[in-house]
Structures are given as structure tokens and as C-alpha cells.
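User: Hey, my collaborator sent me this sequence without any context and asked if I could get a structure. I don't really work with proteins. Can you help?
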Amino acid sequence: MRKRTLKAFAGALVAAALVVAPLVTAGASAAGKDKEPAQLVGVVGERQPFTPETNQTSYWKKQFSDTIVECYSAEGNTSHGKITDGGKTVTLNPYQDSWPGDRWELLVVKGGAEEINVIKLPKAGVAYASLENNGGQQSNVSHWIVCKGKTPEVPQTPAPTQKIDCTSITVDYHRALRNGDHINFQVRAGEREYQVNLYVDRNIAGGWDTMGLRDSKGGTVPLTQAEVESGVITWKYSELLDDPAFTVTFVQTNETDTWPNLQCGTPEEEEPEPTIPDPKVERGEWTDGAWKCGDTTVTQTRNVVTTTYKLENGAVVPTVENTTETQTRPLTSAEIGEKCDLVPGDINAVCVGDVPYLGYELTLPAGYVVDSKTPVTITFLNPEGENYVVKNQPLDGELLWPGASATAPKMWPGWELVGGEYVKTDGNYDWTREGVTVRFEVNPSYFTEVEYPKASAECANPPIGGPDGSEEPTPGTVTPGDGTPAGTPGTPAGTPAASTDASALAVTGGGLSPLVVAAGGAALAAGIIVLAIAAHRRRNVGAGTES
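Assistant: No problem. I've predicted the 3D structure and written it out in C-alpha cell form, which is a compact way to encode the shape of the chain:
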């Protein structure tokens, strides 16, 4: 059991590393191999370490959720493709118009190797290779996963717009400024024609991200972050002209060409008023406010800086106003699980006939969602050794007490069967008899201490001498006495069992209550005491034994 736990833990570490690590460069050798890679048949995309998660179509669909429509797993030939080159490669078929999406998005080829071949946007008709096995030879394809995708739509940015007079031009690019954005002027003065121009250059000292403007005479102007993000350039081009009278015959702003044929006199004789810029709004990042367990939403705030402009005495004067915006967003299930504990109902030791069980009732925190009907892991915490762990349990039910058996030969914690008689032992989960802390965990967790039924309870101890009509252990049954709970073959001792004992009374009421056993005409209470309940947030506990 310890080995299975360590393997599962190692697999989880590998899966976590895959989420944050970049894909291995195409054609690179697997880490830690001493041998040179074999000459592979087929194309190699990107190498990735194999983990159990990479065997799942859901894993790849999550990794490429923006473009993948659906993923499929296959071991042989399908309508999507076939195994080729004697089992060494996978070749995809042409994409069909009737299929969802419009292209092959991803292909994963797995052979008998520690690595998988991952190909983004694979092509039909191309053979893609399985990778080397531990012996350095190309392995046969064991299975492959292919995903269909849809080409993302590329948003179209409007062409730049121009506003020009005889002194300046204002160009709105309708997006943040980029290196190479330009304005070209063709000017005619008398019999002479010449050009002046301005462009955005990412090599200007003092500019945000070294962004600035450079004109055809070598002049430079650094740009602020706000100016770059505004996407607007206002350029007083007339300062570069040599003639008092001129005609602007042609203007080019990136892909927008105009022929204004704008005739202008002497700029000094008629100075136009400065252009008033449009209002500018800068928004900060959203910040979460406080929330508590039971909330399903959180209020966010962000700072908004609005700059407006007006003319005063021929000059443009800005006015800055700071405001705060608010919005509400839903809390994610992961956030709720990180902060909030499970909500406990009744949690007790109960007797079903002469067999002890743990009865429990849990409720998930408001807003926390699970995708399984059996999400609970129950751990009996051993203060001096390995824990007793049972996974995949429902949110409420009954769990056979560690060391107990509901089938012949019946067993009780702290007892073993020797020569047909029950003998007291400090093994067989004896440590659970004197009050034991039990942890219930989904992602949120909950701890409580549960007392084993009192000695007077019918299910507390075995009958004196030995089981009535005892038999030899059934072949395949774990023999009690080595710390392992006895049970029927193939049935873990921790597996919940529905009682068929005629002396077990039904549970009634809103919560789970101790079952009352009728025996010999006298009612005997289950003898349950919950000593202490303490909810804790993700406390580190010693390594557990998985049941």
C-alpha cells in the first residue's frame, strides 16, 4: 500500500510540472537517457514526459480549450487515421467537412516509451512517429489521441483615420501604436515637390518601452505609455516645411491613402487654434474585496483616471478626475475550496448489530462544486504510525470501522482470532478504540474526534471464546492479527456496507443518528460520544495508508 501511495504522489508531481513547464523542444532526447536516440521513422513534434493524465482526452481538451472542439482516443485504425509504417507511425486522414471544427488541432502518439510525441496542427497524410523505448529502439504505437479544432477568428482593426489642416494632422490607428506606424506627406510648393514624414520608432531615449516619434529631419519625441496606448498621433507637420505657401497633394497613414489637395497659405499669417484632444480614460486592475465562507460572489473595485481637455487663453489645459468603479464576480469553486471547510452534520460511531461502523454526514461549502457522487476521502489519523485511509466515499453514509469485519469470521479492532478464540491484541487498529481523530476531505477538509463504542455496546468486542459456529477463513480472506482488517475476498474492510441484520434499527430524522440495537429484549444504546470537534484548514498530517 505504501508503494502505491508513493507512486500516486510521484504521478501528481509530474502532472503539476507539465502544467507550468514549456513543451520539450522538438526532436530533443528524453531527459536522463544515456543512449543516443534511434533513427525514427516518421515526424517528431514536441516530446513530453508520459503521465497518466496525458492518457486522458480531457487533459488535452483542457490544455487547448480555446481552439479544441473534441478529442478522441484510439488504439488502431479509425475514420480519423490509421497506424502506418508497420506500427511505428500514425497518419491522419483528410479532414471532413461534416466533422465539428475545421482542422486537426492536436495529435498525441504513445508507444512503449517514457515520452509521448505531441504534434500541434498536424497535417493529413503525414506519418508521425512513436518515440524510443527504454532500450533506445523505436516502439510500436500503443494508442493515439487526436483532437479536432476550429481556427480562431482574427479580429479586424479599422484602418487609420485622418484629420488634417494646414498646420497639423491627427491620425487615429484605433489600437495601440506600434513600431513602424507612419505618416507620409507629399507637398507641392510652386514647381517643386517633396516629402516629409513621421514614424513610430522603438529606439527613442526617454520613451515608454523606448517608444517615440522620429521625423524626416531627425527630430524625435518620446511617447508616454498613455500616448502609446491611445493609438493617436497629432503631428504639426508644417514645422518641417520650407515654404510659406504649399499644397498637400497626398497623405499616407499605413494602409490608408488620401489625396486632400489641401492648399495652404503662410502658416505665420493664420495660426489655427490648437486641436483639443479627445478625453482619455485609463482604468486600473480589478481588485477583490473581502468575502467570507457562505458567499458565492465577491465585489471588485478599480481606479479610473479620466482626463478631459479645454482651451484657456489659446492653450490646451487638461483636467484629471479620479473615480472608482465596482463590479461583482462569481467566486470559483477552487477559491471556495481553498478558504472554506466542509460543513459537518452528525458524525458518530454506530453499532449495526454487533458490528461497529463510522456514521457521518457532510455538506459542501456554498458554491463549491464536485463532479463525483463519491468525492470524500476519510482518514483515521494514527498519532504513532500509518493512517487508515478510505477514498471515493459519498457525502453521507456508514463506513465499516477499521479492523472490523461484517462477515464470518467477524472481527473487532484490537482483537485477533487465534485457534478459534478471540484474543486481545495491540494490533488490528487497536489505536482506534480510545478516541480517534477522523479527517474528512474533498478539497475543503474537516476534522473531528470520534469515540469507539463503549465496552457495554453489543458491537464493541467479540463474543467470549470465539465466533459461534466459527469456520476456517475463506480462501483469499486476509487473516486478522497483522494490523489489516478482515473481510470477504475482494472487499476492503473500509468499504461501506448496508446492514441486513434484523436487529439494526433504521436511521430517522434530519441527520445521521447512532443506530439502536435490540438484543435479548433490552435496548442497548450504541455508546457513542463525540469528544471534540475542531474544524481546521488543510493541516499537514502524516503519510496515510490507502485502503
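In plain terms: Residues 220 and 276 are 22 Å apart (CA to CA). You can pass these C-alpha cells on to your collaborator as they are.
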